[in-house]
Amino acid sequence: NAGVTQTPKFQVLKTGQSMTLQCAQDMNHEYMSWYRQDPGMGLRLIHYSVGAGITDQGEVPNGYNVSRSTTEDFPLRLLSAAPSQTSVYFCASSYPLGELFFGEGSRLTVL
Amino acid sequence: DAKTTQPNSMESNEEEPVHLPCNHSTISGTDYIHWYRQLPSQGPEYVIHGLTSNVNNRMASLAIAEDRKSSTLILHRATLRDAAVYYCIPLSGNTPLVFGKGTRLSVIA
């Protein structure tokens, strides 16, 4: 099992550019979520989804869009990158109330 | 949402047991208590979770108070690899997992 796969692992963007962080899971989990972690700080929830076609905002949703057209995929879109979005991004998935499985993270730098 | 209180930091000697406390006095009757940890420069990883009774797995034990207002994560023999930030998180229904500040555990050789 691949588990939760995030791509790319590293990305450098210029201010104003857009990009999509990909997240895929092969465990048929209903629940998926995106977190960001700034250097030396804790994890903050960006967006989450409890099933295909359903998404909701977390603690820090501004500047990000998500969609959930399939159970397996939950991409995170940065509409117009800003230096404040420099962070490590983690995708996670689980069954409801179950163990949350995390991807290895995507390190984004915005210049 | 239930609030949690954890010590900012704790220290343990290697090969000694470690008891990491968590206060969650506002927890609801249907909230599970989840514990995660994050090792340096790595993503978070699941440790254990429970609802009412004590739970054991290969990594740790979870002791839940009878009134469910607090719980304790027990590492039976701390190793250097257990140095991490430990998070106690109540979870219910379709609500997402929201991380607090956690407890930074240092293990001394």
Q: Gap between N and C termini of chain B, in Å? A: 38 Å
Structural class of chain B: mainly beta
The description of the largest β-sheet of chain A is: 7 strands, mixed
Large-scale geometry of chain A? globular
**Assembly state:** heterodimer
Radius of gyration of chain B: 13 Å
Kindly name the structural category of chain A: mainly beta
**How far is the N terminus from the C terminus of chain A?**
36 Å
The average pLDDT of chain A is 95
Keywords:
heterodimer, A: 111 residues, mainly beta, seven-stranded mixed sheet, four-stranded antiparallel sheet, 11 strands, B: 109 residues, five-stranded mixed sheet, 9 strands, 0% helix
Structure write-up:
The complex is a heterodimer of chains A (about 110) and B (about 110). Chain A is an all-beta fold. Chain A is about 0% helix and about 50% strand. Chain A contains no helices and eleven strands. Chain A has strands spanning about 5, 10-15, 20-25, 30-35, 45-50, 55, 65, 75-80, 85-95, 100, 105-110. In chain A, the strands form two sheets. In chain A, strands 2, 4, 5, 6, 9, 10 and 11 form a seven-stranded mixed β-sheet that branches. A four-stranded antiparallel β-sheet of chain A has the order 1-3-8-7, with no helix packed on it. In chain A, a hairpin with a 5-residue loop joins strand 4 and strand 5 (about 45-50). Chain A starts with a strand and ends with a strand. The mean pLDDT of chain A is about 95. With about 110 residues, chain B is mainly β. Helix content of chain B is about 0%, strand content about 45%. Chain B has no helices and nine strands. Chain B has a five-stranded mixed β-sheet, with no helix packed on it. In chain B, strands 2-7-6-5 form a four-stranded antiparallel β-sheet, with no helix packed on it. Chain B is globular, with a radius of gyration of 13 Å. The mean pLDDT of chain B is about 95. The interface of A and B includes residues 33, 48, 99 and 102 of A.
